Task: inverse folding
């Protein structure tokens, strides 16, 4: 049975500059668009103007990369203030960031760095989530990152950490299926164990993206189409979660919009097949 | 190892790639750490290349890349936004190329244009709003996107040629120093070369706001009639360029 009680579902795309004109001048067949929050956390100018126009035409999800929810020395107040301002203006359907850290002691790495899955880190992450959600006045979603490093001294699995985090803070989850695949391959864990291990009722959004084969690790590059293995994992995830807002994420080697819409159609077909399967079981 | 120590070691690894920090983070394989190290450096290199495309052409790819590597070593990023990282790159160029004012000014132009692009919005002052102004006490507000600096070389001509992909002039000192102003009209960043008098007037107005005081300043430099005439010309030009966004009674 489906355990997701999401109030928002549908199929979307990550909005990138190359496609601004398409989205503003035509009615692109998506149910929502997701934008990178930081690109619009500016004082003014064209970025905010474009986002206001997009918001008039499509539901918008905000997806951040710099909240640094795992920072041992807490969250940046200026960042939170600007995010709050953006959230208040855009009234997004979803607000998300990553289970990672990028800032510590005045240094900002601008990358999604791994959080050790320890009690100490869990306490920090939960304190930071509580603060962010209090400032924003709403629940956030946190995305499982791609990982390239097995951290010595971890006391729990990634999915146990995520489960405890969601239970303690009431936050929601953004399941990046590609990241599950990449991390499972890099760390040698079972991707299905991850899907079964996270609290399905907390998942509000799914990301689908491509990756690259590095040497010797898989790299989460978002520069290629979703691969067959990730599509299969997506189908499995839907069978566990039920309908969840799903989208294609592409950040490099951006193709024509039609290519991304074709990928999104595939996600729709998998979602429709899952719905039919559920109907058969129910009848 | 607690979380803070882990993050301290990880930060050190990214900044220095030192074996000591690496050994504290992983018991064996370096492959994963190397991915993060590569991501960190590639991100910063890409950021500076994107922010200074014309400085890169002017310097040449190799010298520019060497300057970028120096900057990454000497200026680890601190702000939450990557947009802030290119702002100090001009300081690195000054340190590396102290005798190249053309390069310093070219870098300032590229940085100022980027900053103006996302500066706070402010609607230009309408001519209608000027009808009831008491000029003896009026204080003028300039657009928040306005940035100014002294200009000693033909850097603005070099920038324009690089922008338009036309033949680039040979670098040269100006016969006498002038000024550069950068601001945003609507959604487009603008660059303009001005003479030293207009630069001084804009800097003065930005700091003090009072137009009558500016007139006094120009009269003191140019004489009664030319000073007043020049103040009027400047005001008309600034209004037409949408540099003035507000007027308040003194």
Result:
């Amino acid at each position: 049975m489906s355990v997701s009680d999401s109030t928002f579902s549908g199929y979307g795309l990550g909005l990138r500059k190359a496609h601004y004109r398409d989205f503003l001048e035509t009615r692109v067949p998506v149910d929502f668009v997701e934008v990178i929050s930081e690109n619009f956390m500016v004082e003014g100018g064209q970025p905010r103007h474009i986002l206001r126009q997009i918001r008039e035409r499509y539901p918008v999800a905000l997806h951040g990369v710099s909240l640094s929810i795992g920072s041992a020395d807490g969250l940046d107040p200026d960042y939170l203030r600007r995010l709050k301002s953006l959230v208040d203006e855009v009234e997004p359907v979803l607000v998300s960031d990553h289970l990672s850290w990028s800032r510590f002691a005045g240094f900002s790495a601008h990358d999604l760095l791994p959080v050790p899955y320890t009690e100490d880190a869990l306490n920090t992450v939960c304190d930071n989530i509580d603060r962010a959600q209090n400032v924003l006045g709403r629940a956030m979603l946190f995305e499982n990152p791609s990982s390239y490093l097995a951290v010595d001294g971890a006391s729990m699995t990634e999915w146990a950490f995520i489960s405890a985090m969601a239970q303690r803070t009431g936050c929601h989850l953004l399941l990046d299926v590609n990241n599950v695949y990449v991390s499972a391959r890099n760390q040698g864990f079972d991707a299905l164990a991850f899907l079964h291990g996270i609290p399905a009722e907390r998942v509000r959004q799914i990301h689908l993206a491509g990756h690259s084969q590095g040497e010797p690790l898989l790299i989460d590059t978002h520069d290629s189409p979703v691969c067959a293995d990730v599509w299969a994992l997506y189908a499995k995830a839907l069978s566990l979660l039920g309908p969840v807002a799903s989208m294609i994420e592409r950040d490099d080697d951006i193709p024509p919009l039609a290519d991304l819409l074709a990928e999104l159609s595939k996600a729709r077909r998998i979602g429709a097949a899952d719905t039919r399967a559920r109907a058969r079981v129910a009848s | 190892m607690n979380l803070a120590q882990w993050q301290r070691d990880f930060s050190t690894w990214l900044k220095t790639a030192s074996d000591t920090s690496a050994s504290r983070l992983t018991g064996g394989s370096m492959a994963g750490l190397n991915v993060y190290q590569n991501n960190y450096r590639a991100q910063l290199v890409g950021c500076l290349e994107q922010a200074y495309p014309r400085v890169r052409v002017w310097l040449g790819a190799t010298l520019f890349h060497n300057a970028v590597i120096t900057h990454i070593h000497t200026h680890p990023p601190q702000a939450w936004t990557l947009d802030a990282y290119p702002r100090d790159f001009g300081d690195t160029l000054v340190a590396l190329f102290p005798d190249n004012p053309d390069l310093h000014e070219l870098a300032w132009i590229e940085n100022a244009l980027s900053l103006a692009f996302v500066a706070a919005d402010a609607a230009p002052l309408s001519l209608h709003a000027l009808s009831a102004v008491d000029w003896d006490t009026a204080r003028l507000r300039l657009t928040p996107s306005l940035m100014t600096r002294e200009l000693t070389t033909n850097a603005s001509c070099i920038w324009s040629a690089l922008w338009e992909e036309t033949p680039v002039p040979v670098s040269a000192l100006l016969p006498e120093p002038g000024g550069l102003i950068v601001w945003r009209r609507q959604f487009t960043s603008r660059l303009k070369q001005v003479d030293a008098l207009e630069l001084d007037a804009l800097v003065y107005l930005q700091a003090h706001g009072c137009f009558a005081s500016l007139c006094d300043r120009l009269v003191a430099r140019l004489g009664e009639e030319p000073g007043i005439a020049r103040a009027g010309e400047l005001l008309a030009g600034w209004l037409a360029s949408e540099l003035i966004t507000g007027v308040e009674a003194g």
Q: What stands out?
A: The two ends of chain B are 61 Å apart (CA to CA).
